[in-house]
Amino acid sequence: MVSTQPPNLQVETGGPAAPEPTASHPHTSLLDLPDELLLRILAELPAKAGELMTTSRVCRRLHGIAQEQVLWAHLFHAAGFRLAPEYASRAVATTTPPGTWEDGEYAPAAPERQSLLSPAKWLAYVYDLLWPADLPQPGTCEDMEDGVLVHYPTLFRARCAIADEMKARGPHHVYANPNADVGSDQDDDAPLAQADDMLIAPNHIWMLTEHTAKVYSVRVHGSWVISASRDRSVKLWHLPAIPCDGTKIAHGPSLAASAEGHEGSVLALDFKVADATTGKGFMVTGSSDMTAKVWEIDWGSGENGEGTSARVVCDLLGAADRIAAVAFTDEFIITGSHDHQLRMYTNESVSPLRTVEVGPVCGIALSSRGLPRAAVATTEGRWAIIDLSTGERLLRGGEGEDGYGCIVWVDDYILTGAEAGKTILYSGLYAHRMRTYRGPKKRLMRAAYLDMANNTILSAGHDGHIHFTDLDSWEHYRSYELGGAPIFGMDVDGLNLVFGTGDGAVGFVLYGNGLPYAGMFV
Question: Where do Polar residues bias regions lie (predicted)?
Fold first, then answer.
């Protein structure tokens, strides 16, 4: 057998040697580049913390460049995180961290002299390299007294820790019934839950029992919470401000006011903190007495809600059965009753507009995109999207197999809580069922929340748990154990989760308590 050599392969050994590379072709190492160019190269890496951490391990010089504040600020915004508007324009980068992390726990550092980045260097990188025009531009404050020093690697780590906590990931204690008289902190000696421990306790929770009967509905906006109960009252709660320096809040929520106006159980409520025309709060409630009421809220003038009050300004009559759901927009007030009718009123004059027959209503969800539309769920296991301007049914869904207990509408998703422990996800465009999660107990799901930012579904109901389900895999991975009482209502805003229970308690879960910059996040 004769073997042939591949073309261009040199096999002769007696010929002249190949020429050596000459000095006229120098090779430049990556580390020969100036710091500014290396920083620009790192800025082109995928916006992931792992990329920066890997680079920082190469050598001491790259470690220093990988800690540049502008890179971590870019990472913070690329992850979808944001600062509250009152802080976004005041953030001033500093290279001095406010504390240290050890085993996932944060400890504030003693005050030190801060080292600020050069304003010229900071703004040049931000405007020329990293930031689209529609994102807030970090920079320096003309008046340093108004500036807030931010160490962006710490800011990013703290916000990631809060995201994990909101998803019931990360460090949590195994369930121990919280003592409402003690406060929020779990027993430090309680064992930490392992990855496969399904039942956990929130890290910071208050259970307040000012109501004397079941709490059917809760809503939270900013620093205010309102709860509605079978005891015929609505109670207004004030949430404490969250510190920015990594210290824990000294006290939990406080009861600011209690008001009564219905002759039956208050089953549903919705409110907003400030009306553009009056500066007062605005609330709508629905009751088993077959009426809905419009309230005006005076938030008082004290830091903890002193002087807060609520009064009924209008009654909405005409229902022939209990009103189990209410909602409002800038144009409309909507009520849903077990008499199968959805009623719409003008917000300005509170006069009736139209009535649409939909079935025994158990929940109303407004369009998250601000459209004049509402998704309405019934106890018969069906839902519909209604045009509030015309009363037209735009879309119908649900098979009628399992009665519903609640409905959520976010972007193009409709989420319903149903009987038999089911949480069902539908397409808000085509009405087809996408996924169904069946809980460990076959009880009615009365409340749900679709957390798109954290890719998580929260559901709660008569089994007394708050369940966490991954939106992509539909895996139920953890549940809050909260004492066993049924949960009838749940709401989330910012870093606060609030729920109402069948034993008259209002539960307040605070995320990020004790983490740096927590009070600056939205």
Answer: 1-11
Please state, rounded to an integer, the average pLDDT across all residues of the chain.
86
Please say whether the beta carbons of 518 and 244 come within 8 A. yes
Contact at 8 Å (CB) between 326 and 364? yes
Quote the pLDDT of residue 170. 84
User: Which candidate, 231, 238, 297, places its Cα nearest to that of 264?
Assistant: 231
DSSP classification of residue 209: -
What letter represents residue 44's amino acid? E
Q: Which residues, at least 6 apart from 50, have a Cβ–Cβ distance to it below 8 Å?
A: none
Task: Say if pTM beats, i.e. exceeds, 0.90.
Answer: no
Average pLDDT over residues 122-146: 52
In 3D space, the residue among 377, 392, 504, 371 whose CA is nearest the CA of residue 448 turns out to be 377
Higher pLDDT, 56 or 398: 398
Task: Report whether 207 contacts 178 (CB < 8 A).
Answer: yes
Region for residue 300 given its phi and psi (left: phi exceeds 0; alpha: psi -120 to 50; beta: otherwise): left
- How far apart (Å, rounded) are the C-alpha atoms in residues 149 and 219? 33
Instruction: Walk me through the domains of the chain, giving residue ranges and CATH numbers.
Output: 32-165 (no CATH), 168-250+301-311+361-520 (2.130.10.10)
What are the structure tokens assigned to 436, written together?
A: 């169904």
**Distance between start and end Cα atoms, the chain:** 77
